[in-house]
Design goal:
Elements lengths: L1 H18 L4 H10 L5 H25 L5 H22 L7 H34 L4 H5 L1 H19 L5 H10 L5 H25 L5 H21 L5 H21 L1
């Protein structure tokens, strides 16, 4: 089975490299629906997988000056405490109970549907935000809203491992419409590292991480991301994103129906 995990890691890594959408949107439901991994273990393992893979991306973005550290700090100010509190709450629940399975599957399904909407409507949200970018109220509330968004992402990512990628980027495009796209993406990737690391360590402490599975996924995903990133310039984005969004809607609906 290990080689199938490695192959899955390669495929998901290649898609992440092509589209920029976070691996949690694909990897966690793949582990749950295809391989029958318990949702709690799939989420915990995927969080550490994301922390490791996105650390490399953060280093590249930071070196090129593509990270707005103020935005990253604002997001983290909300997400890190929210992730810690969510882990604390999860620690009181029975690890393999049907209730926990239902909560995680439902949260994962909802997160995937929200991610699909973020992929489809990102450009429209950015255009709408640009029209109101100079409003005094929009500017004044930007920082506290960023912290609040971070808190929501902290809860969602800790429960489902989904949301730190496409969903976070879509919200940042709306809040900071004049910021170059590459700095939005770089700031979001940088924020995802401490968030997924804290949430992943928390899941490890409550026994929801499979280290052998994590190693198998990384073995395939790292070359997959490298290959997908180099091929991304040759594949039209306007074709990839609707297909990916449709996949996420179908998978999300399936998880909600479990």
């Amino acid at each position: 089975m290990d080689w199938l995990y490695t192959l899955s890691g390669f495929v998901v890594g290649a898609i992440v490299g092509l589209t920029g959408v976070g691996g949690g949107s694909l990897m966690t439901p793949l582990l749950v629906l295809l391989f029958g991994v318990h949702p709690a273990t799939a989420v915990g393992t995927d969080l550490l997988y994301a922390a490791i893979t996105k650390a490399g991306g953060t280093a590249v973005h930071a070196k090129k000056g593509h990270v707005d550290w103020r935005i990253t700090r604002l997001l983290a100010a909300g997400s890190i405490p929210a992730a810690a509190l969510t882990i604390w709450a999860l620690s009181f629940l029975p690890k393999r109970s049907p209730e926990v399975t239902h909560v995680i599957s439902m949260s994962l399904g909802v997160a995937l549907l929200l991610t699909a909407c973020a992929i489809v409507f990102r450009s429209k949200l950015q255009r709408r935000a640009l029209a109101h970018a100079d409003d005094a109220a929009h500017t004044k509330l930007r920082a506290p809203i960023t912290v609040a968004v971070g808190a929501l992402l902290g809860v969602l990512v800790t429960i489902s491992s989904v949301g730190a990628g496409a969903l976070g980027v879509a919200v940042l495009f709306y809040l900071y419409p004049r910021l170059p796209a590459i700095r939005i993406v770089g700031s979001d990737v940088a924020h995802a590292v401490p968030l997924t690391l804290v949430a992943g360590i928390g899941h490890w402490m409550i026994g929801s991480v499979d280290w052998a599975l994590l190693g198998s996924l990384l073995l395939g995903s790292l070359p997959g991301i490298w290959l997908g990133s180099h091929a991304s310039a040759k594949v039209p984005d306007r074709f990839l994103r609707p297909i990916l969004a449709s996949m996420l809607v179908l998978i999300g609906g399936k998880l909600i129906a479990l």
